[in-house]
Design brief:
Length: 799
């Protein structure tokens, strides 16, 4: 009896062990049209219609699943690609699918670097990627115009960019820092040179910590196909003045060498105007501006594949902007309460930007085990000459000149090391040296300078040395990453040879990331980071930035950095029809906030003259939410709706005219700036070759420290027709059809006033694109250098 019972127990145990025996399923997800692995693709293991298990591919495209031995269907999904399915039987301990090549949804030409038919928004694990296509939202536009079509991003009438309602955003080109202002960057880069735009709102410790609201990385085109190939774009914009833009993208690859380059030229005349009214005196003011800009940009570089494990890459970006602006400014005082003011100004200047990048990359034998050594040097030189002709009442005209010359050099060297300790664990370490030198000279023959000198030289030097470490692991549906960055920061400002400000401190910037894949189609991530906003050169430069008879702007060299602690929660839902929805909420705590302040100008004899500068204030906080979607309604109709809301507490000082004493009182202002934006992009496919597009934009009014802005909105429409097997395309765009895009404001600081500014928002664009060349892309890995940015949630220790 005991023997029989033992036999039964033994057989039961053997059957149980056999029934529970499992196998491992592995593979790599790849896109051979661009020679890159596909990270964060959704891999599902199905038994019939039931999902047994699932996982997302890693940064290098690898995936691994564990399941009992049985028959299954493997399904791979990713936005922009056709779904991959494969039936198989798991018989052994390991079943390796090898490389699984996904096929893009869009039709592509063999051997040519094709730009997508339309722009798409892709939510990745640590960033939102806008792949710039050839639709209405990008045709003929500059980078600045594209930005206004992107969720959570706004560009104001002066070209200043903000992310989530805050202008403290870091702009990168090809993942590299630039010492140009955001206005210069957005003005000089045409849309045809842009491959994608990345929004990184809560970067990890692997990134440079600058920029409270995050990082915007503009990735320029780079081709890697064999042989000679490229594309040509040309277009004309009809508005009050006619504008034109032209660009070419070329590539030649043979053997171990790959040469790439693109160049562009644009010419534009612009018209801007503003009308203001000082309500208490019924005093009108008007501003009339005509500007001419010539922009040249080119990028050239090469890759040398020493062998399969070693690559050396070099490229240079060069751009020039020639500007000529005429400005008329008139203020009238009824009843001759004050002397009328008429000023005519001509600004002429040139901005030249150069950057040089050299990278060595080594791949170790283990997959994902890499070493990068990178150096980058950039120089931004600009000069601006202003000729002023001012008339007060019936007095003789007054003539004076302002001349400024600015040189900003930035040198960076960084080392990045990535080691996947096992299939679920990754360690990343890196170090960086960043040296910045700014030299600004200002000369004027006008005595009404806010600084008591007519010849000023200001030097602003920064030395930053840092090191970071991040450690991440994946456990089934959960993953996390912990990191910190230790940074030594030293700055010194010198005015006319004498030191006027110094700062030196050591700071830690931690970051935490938590991810949870609830199902194959539902993903959550929670992140925290500490960031810093260091005063910009313009904010610290005591040299006069601009001047009118009633307003002068200067910087404050004693500004302190402001630090921000940011928490963010995001959710992404994928649907079987390739649609997706992404939602996010965030909260920020801001210490020693930098803000604008307006004083009565003590250096100007005019009693109505004001001085604008910057200062540090108390701690504030901000919060907001975002909601965006890619919706495929039918085979011929898709849309991308998006809304975002931000609420920022702000503190600052403003001057308020006291009627009782006829003096200016300095008033502290504490306000909450609530901003709401909505966008809707809708694409229609009429035939195989003909597409239409509608785009709508709405921005709500926002309260400010010195003024309250009113709502803005517009509607665009466009069409595109393809010829010659999609090698040739003709595009048309009608922007701001109803001419509603205007900036309006009201204010009581320093006087009750209102105003409206307008520009050439309504325009018609006609453009032609032609692609040519042949040769297939090689299967050799591109070492993640195709986009000139590194993967794995960071752009290297440099950023």
């Amino acid at each position: 009896m005991k023997f029989k019972l033992s036999v039964i127990l033994f057989l039961t145990m053997v059957c149980s062990i056999y029934a529970q025996q499992k196998g491992k399923i592995t593979g790599i997800i790849f896109d051979n049209t661009v020679n890159q692995s596909v990270p964060y693709a959704t891999i599902s293991l199905k038994s019939g219609e039931n999902i047994v298990t699932g996982v997302m591919s890693e940064d290098n495209g690898k995936f691994e699943l564990t399941a009992p031995l049985s028959k299954y269907t493997l399904e791979v999904q990713f936005i922009g690609y056709q779904t991959y399915t494969k039936e198989f039987e798991l018989k052994e301990a390991t079943h390796n699918f090898g490389t699984i090549n996904l096929t893009p949804e869009a039709t592509t030409l063999e051997g040519v670097n094709i730009i997508a038919e339309q722009s798409t928004i892709e939510q990745k694990i640590d960033r939102k990627v806008i792949n710039v296509g050839r639709d209405l939202t990008t045709a003929g536009a500059t980078a600045g115009e594209i930005m206004n079509n992107i969720p959570s991003v706004n560009v104001d009438k002066d070209g200043k960019i903000s992310l989530r309602g805050n202008e403290n955003v870091r702009i990168l080109i090809d993942g590299r820092p630039t010492n140009m202002s955001s206005e210069q960057v957005l003005k000089q880069i045409p849309s045809t040179s842009i491959k994608s735009i990345e929004l990184i709102t809560n970067p990890s410790a692997k990134y440079n910590p600058e920029g409270m609201s995050g990082i915007i990385n503009i990735v320029l085109h780079k081709n890697t196909m064999d042989g000679f190939n490229g594309s040509i774009d040309t277009g004309v914009t009809f508005a009050h003045y006619t504008k034109n833009s032209n660009s070419v993208n070329l590539n030649y690859r043979q053997g171990k060498l790959n040469f790439f380059g693109n160049g562009s030229y644009s010419y534009s005349q612009g018209k801007n105007q503003g009308d203001m009214m000082r309500e208490d005196l019924l005093s009108p003011s008007e501003i009339r501006v005509k500007s001419i800009n010539k922009n040249y940009l080119y990028k050239v570089g090469m890759d040398y594949y020493i062998d399969d494990n070693n690559t050396v890459s070099f490229y240079t970006n060069q751009s020039t902007n020639d500007g000529n602006t005429k400005l008329g400014n008139a203020t009238l005082y009824p009843g001759q309460q004050f002397e009328d003011i008429n000023q005519f100004t001509r600004y002429k200047g040139q901005n030249r930007f150069s950057s040089y990048n050299l990278v060595y990359k080594h791949l170790f034998e283990k997959k994902g085990h890499t070493l990068d050594i990178e150096s980058n040097f950039s120089r931004n030189k600009s000069d601006n000459n202003g000729d002023y002709n001012t008339k007060y009442g019936k007095n003789p005209n007054q003539f004076y000149q302002d001349n400024s010359d600015n040189t900003n050099n930035l040198t960076t060297v960084n080392v990045d090391y990535v080691n996947p300790l096992n299939d679920h664990t990754k360690l990343e370490v890196g170090a960086e040296a960043r040296i910045s030198r700014a030299d600004n000279s200002f000369n004027s023959n006008n005595s009404l300078s806010a600084v008591d000198a007519r010849s000023i030289n200001n030097k602003y030097d920064q030395d930053i040395y840092s090191a970071y470490v991040t450690f991440g692991q994946t456990y089934g549906k959960f993953n996390y990453q912990l990191g910190t960055r230790l940074e030594s920061y030293k700055v010194e400002s010198t005015l006319n040879g004498k030191s006027n400000f110094k700062d030196d401190y050591l700071t830690l910037y931690p970051s935490v990331y938590l991810g949870y894949t609830m199902t194959d189609n539902d993903m959550f991530n929670l992140s925290y980071s500490r960031r810093v906003d260091r005063p910009s050169i313009n904010q610290t430069n005591p040299v006069r930035q601009f001047s009118t008879p009633l307003m002068t702007m200067v910087g404050n060299p004693e500004l302190k950095p402001q630090f921000t602690n940011s928490v963010e929660l995001n959710y992404t839902r994928m649907f079987t029809n390739k649609s997706s929805v992404t939602a996010g909420v965030y909260y920020r705590k801001i210490n020693k906030e930098i803000n604008q302040v307006i004083y009565d100008d003590p250096e100007n004899d005019n009693p109505n003259a004001l001085l604008m500068t910057f200062d540090n204030y108390k701690s504030n906080d901000a919060y907001g939410f975002e909601l965006s979607a890619n919706i495929k309604l039918t085979a011929w109709w898709d849309m991308q709706p998006a809304i975002d809301f931000s609420s920022i507490k702000q503190s600052g000082y403003a001057s308020l005219f006291n009627n009782a004493t006829s003096t200016m009182d300095l008033v502290e202002r504490n306000i909450t700036a609530n901003a709401f934006n909505a966008r809707l992009n809708s694409n229609f496919k009429a035939t195989k070759n003909l597409r239409f597009n509608l785009f709508g934009f709405y921005r709500g009014g926002v309260d400010g420290i010195t003024m309250d802005s009113k709502e803005m909105y517009k509607i665009d429409a466009g069409a595109r027709y393809a010829l010659l097997d999609n090698k040739l395309s003709i595009s048309a765009r009608f922007s701001d059809i109803f001419n509603t895009m205007k900036f309006k404001y009201t204010s009581i600081y320093p006087y009750p006033s209102s105003g409206e500014f307008s520009w050439e928002s309504r325009s018609v664009y006609l453009g032609v694109n032609y692609t040519f060349g042949g040769g297939k892309g090689r299967a050799i890995q591109r070492k993640n250098r195709d986009s000139n940015t590194k993967q794995s949630g960071g752009s290297g220790g440099l950023f």
